[in-house]
TrEMBL record:
Lineage of the species this protein comes from: Bacteria, Pseudomonadati, Pseudomonadota, Alphaproteobacteria, Rhodobacterales
Native source organism of the sequence: Pseudosulfitobacter koreensis
Name this protein carries in UniProt: Pyrimidine 5'-nucleotidase
Gene3D superfamilies: 1.10.150.450, HAD superfamily/HAD-like
SUPFAM superfamilies per record: HAD-like
Amino acid sequence: MPQTDFSHVTSWVFDLDNTLYHPSARLFDQIEVRMTAYVMATIGVDRAEADRLRVYYWRTHGTTLAGLMREHGVDPAPYLTDVHDIDLTHLVADAVLAARLRALPGRRIVYTNGSGPYAERVLAARGLAGCFDAIYGVEHANFLPKPERKAFETIFAADGLRPDVAAMFEDDTRNLTAPHAMGMRTVHVADVAAPADHIHHHTDDLSAFLARLIG
């Protein structure tokens, strides 16, 4: 991976969950339990049906929240507060990753389908508070979720980000489709590669990948 592939990049966009921490932290195990419970309480179905709908909404609409909003008119604010009320005490601070993030030239932002306050909690637990110039949650995209292109356009317009000089780091390959189409350099962060035309690079170790970028 030549550094020249990123020599033009002046904005670095990072997803949060399973990207800025390893999936072995299993935060989504906690979140999914709370999402299923929220679906049960909101639309009055049993746990099995709520779990099925949670996955269906994620696949169909990009997030469970988007499905609940579009199909049931759910108010997003209480949902986001509830499902992200999870334990983060087992997350480990990563001073090396923090230093490598800070060494990236240009603007660094977090963009997550979770909420901004949740992202701030996770970053603090990982020792990454202060590494980013801005943090954007789904609320900043008017609750439109990744992978919808309009969601990216909304966030990037608010940030003043130029996609042609930006890079996107994501664990979900779906969420790299729009950035690629917009002209961004795309990096899939996951244990297993999923080669596709819209993915330029893959890494199973974000910190090591960044170390190769900053030399």
